[in-house]
Amino acid sequence: MVRNKLLVVLTLVVAIIVVIWVVINNSSNVDEEVAREFDETPAIDGQPYLEKAGAPVVVIEFGDYKCPSCKSWDETVFPQLKEEYIDNGVVKFVHINTPFHGEESLLAAQASESVWQNNPDSFWDFHKEIYQSQPETQQHDDLWVTEERLLEIANSIESTINLEQLESHLQARAFMDEIETDINLIEAFEVSQTPTIMINNYKMNNPFDYNALVELIEMENN
């Protein structure tokens, strides 16, 4: 009887050691050249998101509508991510405004906040169309984002966006509290370039490395 109890205890101890080893191994198997691990995932309450309910993995884009690389990411990486992981309920995708390029970046961010708050069903069409409206040869500091252009973009998509309300928000430079929240996240997670992509609490070094993105998603989904 005593021997059996001792065997059970030893078995439990071994099992616990194995579990601890697996946890430690899984937490350290991401190459630092691929991604940097933070202690927590960014708080995403109130941020624009796209998901099927209950998605277990959060992918965050820190993006700037004035950023040519963000446009490229939205046109190349995002469609594949959406088809393979968002549409099938694995990934909750979140956009965080990252206005790195002056007043135009801030204005576009305010427009997106207005649409998300008041017409969320139209947000992702508006989001996509802003990126697509970037001039093909633009540099970061080329001027093209204006109130008039943003209203034209909103009017060009099939949506329920209230143009008068959007215009009022743009003129008032509304939603600065929301953008301040974004800026706090940018600072907390040491975002220094756009786009920056995070998978839960892992910040990718190369946002265009789709294979690395997939590996991180699969790891976090297990």
Automatic annotation (TrEMBL):
Q: List where the protein spans the membrane.
A: 7-24
Residues covered by the Thioredoxin domain = 29-175
Which family is it part of? Belongs to the thioredoxin family. DsbA subfamily.
Keyword terms: Disulfide bond, Membrane, Oxidoreductase, Redox-active center, Signal, Transmembrane, Transmembrane helix
Write down the species. Answer: Alkalicoccobacillus plakortidis
Top-level taxon in the UniProt lineage: Bacteria
Molecular function terms, GO-annotated: oxidoreductase activity
UniProt cross-references to PROSITE patterns, sorted A to Z: THIOREDOXIN_2
| InterPro entries linked | Thioredoxin-like_fold, Thioredoxin-like_sf, Thioredoxin_domain
The UniProt entry's coiled-coil ranges are none
The signal peptide stretch is: none
Q: What is this protein called?
A: Thioredoxin domain-containing protein
